[in-house]
Amino acid sequence: MTDVAYVALGSNLGDRAGYLARGRAALAALPGSRIVAESSIEETLPLGGADQPAYLNQMVALETSLAPRELLVQLLAIEQREGRTRGVRWGSRTLDLDIVAYAHSTNDEPDLHVPHRELPNRDFWQRELAELRKP
User: Fold this and answer.
1) Domains located in the chain, CATH noted
2) Distance CA 47, CA 58 (A)
3) Cα separation of 49 and 51, whole Å?
4) What CA–CA distances, in Å, run from 46 to 23, 90, 92, 135?
5) Is residue 96 annotated as a catalytic residue, yes or no?
6) Tens digit of pLDDT for each residue in 102-111?
7) Is 108 one of the annotated active-site residues of the chain?
8) Which of 6, 19, 37, 45 could form a disulfide with 95 if both were Cys (CB 3.0 to 4.6 A apart)?
9) Where are the alpha helices (DSSP H) in 1-135?
10) Which residue among the candidates 3, 24, 51, 84 is catalytic per the annotation?
């Protein structure tokens, strides 16, 4: 059974557009998955008031047979392959991948909330999601 996962991509270090492109390619290569739509890419200011470079952000609609937990494991592995290090909350990153929502699934565990708890607070996610959900 497949569902559509909405995955946000972000980068604010190095070749930002290159990291997004490699992120999209890695998502498309996941087992039982294919990208069915891509939002526009937009530049946004960093969250949390941190002094850091601007981000490039994009969202994709990923048709997938992976459940939210399985997809999260894959996203973390992709981030790590692209040099993502975790330290400061909302710190700079080579590639950030977030499950924003699923079309038909939800999840409520301490480390995985679908839809993402920050969706109401991120205007750019709302714009990108609306763009992907246009008929």
Assistant:
1) 3-132 (3.30.70.560)
2) 15
3) 7
4) 19, 8, 8, 31
5) yes
6) 999 999 999 9
7) no
8) 19
9) 16-28, 68-81, 123-132
10) 84
